[in-house]
Structures are given as C-alpha cells and as structure tokens.
Structure prediction request, 282 residues.
Amino acid sequence: MPNDKHVIEALSSKITIENGKITEVTEPKIENCPIFERGHGIKKLTKESVAENINFRIKHFGYCSKDRKVSEEDTLVAVGISEILSTNLKLGKIDVVVGACDGVGTLLMSKPEIVEGVGGRVSALVSTTPIAEVIEKVGIKNVLYPETAKLDPIEGIKFAIEKGYKNIAVTLLGSPLVKEIAKMEFADDVNIYLFIAHTTGISRELAEECFEYGDIITACASKHIRDIAEELNVYYYGKIVSIYAGSEIGRELLDNRLREIGKELSNRNYPQDQTYFPKPLI
Prediction:
C-alpha cells in the first residue's frame, strides 16, 4: 500500500495516523482540557482518551483519509481561528487564507465554508502525505505541493501573491516562522496577517515573538502566552482558551467576528480568571 502517514499534535499529545489507523500516541503533556471535558465529559487526559477523540474524528469526518470533509457551514465554536477567518473572508477584509490540511499540505482557501471545514476540526499538523480524493475536493489549483503535501507557509504566501491576492491571512504554529515571515518584504499593496495557534509548550522567547509580530494569538495551554498577555494588558476574548489580539488589525478582525454573532465586544479584564484554564499550563 502506498505511503499514507499523517502526524498531528492534539490535546498536547503527538499522534501518528497511517492508512486510516492510529499507530502511535504519546502521553499527553497536560492533564485537563476544559473544552475537552465539557464536550466529552473526560476530566483527565490519557493516551486512551486522546486516541478515542482522534478515532471519532476519523469516523465522523474522515480525518486523515479520503473521506475527509472539507466544507462546513456550521461553526464548531463561537469564536476560534477558523471562525474569525471565515467572518473576515465574508466581509472582504481578508482575500485568502494560507493554511494546512491533512492529505493536502499547504493550501489556499478563499471560501469561508472551506476555511471552517478544513480548519475547524484540525489540530496542529506536523506532517502529512497527499490524498488525491481530498486534493480534488479542495481544488488542485489551490494546493501548493499536490505531489508531496509539503507544509511550507512561506512558499504558500508567495503562491497566494502570484495568484493576485493582496490581503493574506496565514495560520501558523507558535514557531520561529512567525518572526521570519514578519520580517519578509512584500509589495506595498500586500498585507500579511499572522494567525498563531497551537502554542502549548512554546518558550518564553517564542511567546514574546508571537505578541510582537502576530495579529491573532490563541492561548491554548501556554503559560508564557498567558503571562505575557497579562503583562502587556492585551485585548482578548474568551475565558477557557483565550484569543488575543496582538495588533490593531487583529483587534479589528476579532471584533468583526464578535459583531457578526451578536457578542459584546471584548475588553481587557485582568487578571484573567484561571478557573477554566487547562491544567497544568506549560
């Protein structure tokens, strides 16, 4: 059987999926995720509970398989990265999203329902291999490397610019790529917005760079992200997995989502209530 291997990070664990089956799960680094507990009733994360969740995703929306659902009209949460992006695509504030999809790799998304379908359920994608059926669903013209499904957001940005997009959002993990992309030079009429997710366990230095260069940053179970937000008095939304606006444009994009769903605009209530934080923060 052809090589079919996908490595993801979810619930602070690393999971390998090969030919539609989980072949490896590492021990979770955190013990409790309030969102996971609320949705599944599981108070303590274990390798078994993580595997159960991933198997649910495989069964019900084809995660890491040819049956992958890539379009979704309904949102999974009220305010998350995918939801903010989808709203701002509808409003024309963003032209395209450079993101990643299992079985596809680096992908350009200009339709809100694709952003939600691809990103709403996805965890941090470490590596993936191409699945022809999924590439066909998203459109091969939107895929940077259809033969290898390589993950490369920098080349993804260049790909978007070549196609004429001007207001480009990029989804990233908390990594040195945040600073690298922020330091790149683009034409005056090209705007790059950095959306940073999956920050659990990143260093203090990387967390500082997320706030220095990022537009939207998710807290996840990151101690440093939450500490720095407190120190800087950053505008944010959400009690469990807070979403921080690292820039004025980030605040505008976040507020656009809040307005669309009829939520009160956020604030800077500090110190944050730690009752619903993941445990432990790392």
Notes: The longest strand covers residues 167-173. The chain has one domain: 70-276. The two ends are 39 Å apart (CA to CA). The CA atoms of residues 166 and 189 lie 6 Å apart.
